[in-house]
UniProtKB/TrEMBL annotation:
Protein name: Magnesium and cobalt transport protein CorA
Transmembrane segments: 266-285, 297-317
Domain of life (superkingdom): Bacteria
Family listed: Belongs to the CorA metal ion transporter (MIT) (TC 1.A.35) family.
Compartment annotation: Cell membrane
Length: 323
């Protein structure tokens, strides 16, 4: 579906050509075209390919989706794939994609499986015509910058959830199994973030310094800024992963300690009942020559002895911290 199309000249919108009039508009005017599509049909991509002479392999990638973040060169044209991440109601990260074709006189963005639009990016660019005059390279930077900036709230949310779990781990009565499950859920979200950030970090490093594609030549400082943002996100992901691993180990250690305390309690009570059972067994043999058998106070004495021994054991185990 076509979201927007515009022809810019000297940083201003001069026409809205649509899919079938892009080539004619570019031939009749200076400037460049910016076209945005969302979940396009095969027919729309075919028409756009014909109008702008897009590379067939890149169009096939944009048609199928499910691409790894990348930037590919086809002569003087760039094809970029980036992941769009958004948190679902269940806390899981939903993964969409945006594919961007960047030529000397056009930019085409193709969005798949995502509700995150770029109208705000277009509005910001149109409010800064001096930057739009830099051409398609600026639009490519603006789209990439918007994608990367949307990763920051996601990593902040993971870090906040991790801090909450760390604070609750040492509270009494916590469900250790539930905490471990939540930690692994956070680890999965970080893995999704890493799959979006790490490949993009690698390709962004090729857009500034050294051999740079022609359409990005004037925007090297801007792409360096995006690269710095990705480095910060990557560092935050690595730090959060290490914290999750440490928190999981601590939580498992606490489980072991809890189990040890339960074992001690059971052992202490077993020892108390074992002593009582032993004494009751001795006096329960009923041999005729037992001194206390016919004594009037024999039975109370036996119960008292059992109580004294059990109480002494209980006191001792309390002092040891087993009960």
């Amino acid at each position: 579906m076509l979201i927007n199309s515009a022809l810019y000249d000297d940083g201003r919108v001069v026409a809205e050509p649509g899919l079938d009039g892009v080539a004619e508009a570019l031939a009749s005017r200076a400037g460049f075209a910016w076209i945005a599509l969302r979940d396009p049909s095969d027919d729309e991509l075919t028409r756009l390919q014909r109008e702008l002479n897009l590379p067939p392999l890149a169009v096939e990638d944009a048609r199928k989706g499910h691409q790894r973040p990348k930037v590919e060169e086809y002569g003087d044209l760039l094809f970029a794939a980036m992941h769009l991440l958004e948190a679902g109601a269940d806390g899981e990260l939903r993964v969409g994609e945006v594919h961007v074709f960047v030529g000397p006189r056009f930019v085409v963005s193709v969005r798949h499986r995502s509700d995150q639009g770029f109208l705000g990016v277009r509005g910001r660019a149109e409010r800064e015509p001096h930057l739009l005059r830099l051409g398609p390279g600026f639009v490519f930077y603006a789209l990439m910058d918007a994608v990367v900036d949307r990763y920051f709230p996601l990593i902040d949310e993971v870090e906040a959830e991790l801090e909450r779990l760390e604070a609750s781990m040492f509270q009494a009565g916590q469900d250790r199994q539930a905490i471990v499950q939540q930690l692994f859920g956070l680890k999965q979200r970080l893995a999704t973030l890493r799959h979006a950030v790490t490949p993009l970090l690698e390709v962004t490093s090729k857009l500034h310094g050294g051999r740079v594609p022609g359409v990005c030549m004037a925007m090297q400082d801007y792409f360096r800024d995006v690269y710095d943002h990705l480095l910060r996100i990557q560092a935050s992901i690595d730090a959060a992963r290490e914290t999750i691993i440490a928190a999981t180990q601590v939580n498992l250690t606490l489980v072991t300690i809890d189990e040890s305390l339960v074992t001690k309690r059971l052992a202490a009570w077993a020892a108390i009942f074992a002593a009582s059972t032993a004494l009751a067994g001795i006096w329960g043999m009923n041999f005729e020559k037992m001194p206390e058998l016919k004594w009037a106070f024999g039975y109370p004495m036996a119960l008292g002895a059992i109580a004294v021994v059990s109480g002494a054991l209980y006191w001792r185990f309390r002092r040891l911290g087993w009960l």
